[in-house]
Amino acid sequence: MTTEAPLTTAPVGGAVKKVTTPAAAAKKKLSSPWASLAAIVIAVLWTVPTFGLLVTSFRPEADIKKTGWWTFFSNPLVTFENYEAVFGAEEGVNLADYFLNSLIITIPSVIIPLFLASLAAYAFAWMNFPGKNLLFIVIFALQIVPLQVTLIPLLTFFVDAGLAGTFWTVWLAHSTFALPLAIYLLHNFIKEVPSSLIEAARIDGAGHVSIFFRVLLPLLTPALAAFGIFQFLWVWNDLLVALTFTGPQISPITVQLSNMTGTRGTAWYLLSAGAFVSMVVPVTVFLLLQRYFVRGLLAGSVKG
Amino acid sequence: MFTTASTTSDKLLQMVAAILLFAAIIGLILFIASRFTGKSDRAVAALYLAPVVVMLSVGLLYPGLRTVYQSFLDASLQNFVGFDNYQRIIEDPEQRLVLRNTFFWVLVTPFAATGIGLLYAILVDKARGEAFAKALIFLPMSISGVAATVIWKFMYEYRPDQSNIKQIGVINQIIVLFGGKPQQLLIDSPLNTFLLIAIMIWIQAGFAMTVLSAAIKAIPDDIVEAARLDGVTPWGMFRFVTVPAIRPALVVVLTTIAIGTLKVFDIVQTMTGGRFDTSVIANEFYSQAIRTGDRGFGAALAVVLFVLVIPIVVYNIRQLRRSEA
Question: B39: buried, middle or exposed (CB in 10 Å: 19+, 13-18, 0-12)?
Fold first, then answer.
């Protein structure tokens, strides 16, 4: 299954072995300047769009409207007014509120599935009960269900339960959608723990509860981190679930940014600053926790 | 606690309450579990699995089955309409366009993103500053589809073709530099769909590069040395050593991107909202089911989406089985 790849290809970007790979051999024989040029062209193509908008977000509104961002280098005028505008009330954007909503939506949506999935993964890995394999396969298979398939009945359900328009809709939806992947990932990890460790604890008279807390939880940290970071970014970056369930008071920053492209589509001074405000969190996470991030991302790539 | 929070302190309080509630549930489960010592695992396992089974049944399994049922109902989910919704997806010219666009997306994105990712992985392999070079390509993967779309909307920005008006979008500026007329890039179909696809490629290439780079580094040295002693050309090395060795990773990357692309929503929603003939199934689902309120038809679109995902997953599993055998 696709999700097995990360567990074998995990240590990406880590220590590079000093051996020749076929790719390196192929590259060496290609005339090296051309290879470097091609790499640089791709790198520039991939960076310019973001860079252009970043520069734009620091240019005065009047300049943004009249000239391209590249003229900044012949006429460098830096202002923070665009950022002040998206946080201020005058423009009606109020990104600070939506930023807070994003945090409020995201934190429980990470913590809740992490705890529930750890318990379930432990049961699957170290307990015997009838129907275990079947139940595990069903949960595993649920990973590929597109979210769209669940949204209309869930919307009705939340209305009937009186939860419509509250944070509970997104918390419950995101937590539920996260479970199959979380259980699968954590189960794989728990399985790797040597059974002698568990047996030793059992002989010492430890029950399932203390084995879980004293033996497994400390060992699980890397897997919890990988999944936690993946889920954090998935929820932070989500648009579909948020648009479906949240009203104006509790919607996250992605919804507000998406709305701005419709209502303030030409207000580039607001859009550019707004986009970067929404990117601050994921990019920071990416830069600081790159290793866990890549691992979690590869594992969760079929989700949703 | 279960109402709409409006002030900052209300919101924070509700968040803490939610976390505490779930912590209490888990505490209760663990407390009860600690009463059962020794003997059978069954009772403890049932306790540990109960919350997960309840949530998945109520939040995923049941809604999924219900959506299949609703896809045979009308807009208000009152009357049974047989296969009318599905017939509309196939016969309505507007929906055919949606299917055509989805087909373009799924056909182009995986191969383009994987091709670029593979090329880049080979080019920067063992190069100085490899980690930095990779981070540049990978970064788009970490931001939201909405932010990525805003970034590219600015690339595609159009200003009318008048002597006193300058272009502010990069693409139109380049067109003008080469003596062309600026284009309303996001209006002309089907060009606009391909411009939206470019954003997805921009996002996904980093994913392809990361997985393939790891696979390349895992190729055993002796194979490479043997090939070199046989005097294999660089192209031969790529064609007969690298590609066969990383074949399983290639399949994973292609199918994963294809599945992600099938479900693409935020790019289309943010860039055009599906206007100018750019809609795809996932976006059409949202406009029909949530925005317009045609629930039955939306359900049918969701089912089609699910049905389209299945063959890709099956192909993926069969390829992996074969490579393991």
Answer: exposed
Can you tell me the distance from the alpha carbon of B102 to that of B112, in angstroms, rounded to the nearest whole number?
Answer: 15
pLDDT (tens digit per residue) in B252-304: 899 999 999 999 999 999 999 999 999 999 999 999 999 999 999 999 999 99
Q: Which residues contact A199 (CB under 8 A, 6 or more apart)?
A: none
B49 touches chain A (CB under 8 A): yes
- B312 lies in a domain? yes
ipTM score of complex: 0.91
In chain B, what is the straight-line distance between the N-terminal and C-terminal CA atoms, in Å?
A: 54
Instruction: Using pLDDT thresholds of 50, 70 and 90, give the confidence band for residue A7.
Output: very low
CATH code of the domain containing A238 = 1.10.3720.10
Range of the domain at A42: 2-83
- Residue A279 sits at the vertex; the CA angle it makes with A275 and A284, to the nearest 5 degrees, is 160
Q: What are A64-99's pLDDT values in tens digits?
A: 988 889 999 888 889 999 999 999 877 777 899 999
Looking at per-residue pLDDT, the higher value among A21 and A164 belongs to A164
Most A CBs within 10 A among B20, B41, B139, B143, hence the mutation to make, goes to B143
pTM of the model: 0.89
- Residues 165-204 of chain A with CB under 8 A from chain B are 165-168, 171-173, 175-177, 179-180, 183
Q: Do residue A111 and residue B19 have CB atoms under 8 angstroms apart?
A: yes
| Residue whose C-alpha is closest to residue A124's, from A184, A199, A210 | A184
Q: Which amino acid is at A268?
A: W
Same domain, A79 and A191: no
Of residues B217, B196, B198, the one with CA closest to residue B280: B196
Counted residue by residue, chain B has a size of 325
Count Cα atoms within 13 angstroms, Cβ side, for B303: 20
Using one digit for the tens of pLDDT, what is the confidence trace for B157-210? 998 888 888 899 999 999 999 988 999 999 988 899 999 999 999 999 999 999
* B42-64 pLDDT tens trace: 888 999 999 999 999 999 999 99
Q: Say if residue B50 is in the same domain as residue B112.
A: no
Distance CA B253, CA A12 (A): 15
Residues 6+ apart with CB under 8 A from A26: B122, B234, B235, B237, B238, B242
Q: Which two tokens stand for residue B229?
A: 């002693």
Paired tokens of A285: 């996470």
Q: Which amino acid is at A143?
A: Q
Spatial distance between the Cα atoms of B52 and B75, rounded to a whole number of angstroms: 33
Domain count, chain A: 2
Q: Which of B41, B245, B282 sits opposite A129 (nearest CB)?
A: B41
Q: For residue B80, list its beta bridge partners.
A: B73
- Check B56 against A176: CB less than 8 A apart: yes
Residues in chain A within 8 Å Cβ distance of B23: 115
Residues A161 and A22 in one domain: no
Residue B115 sits in the same domain as residue B27:
no
- What is the SS3 assignment for B80? strand
SS3 content of chain B, % helix, strand, coil (to 5): 75, 0, 25
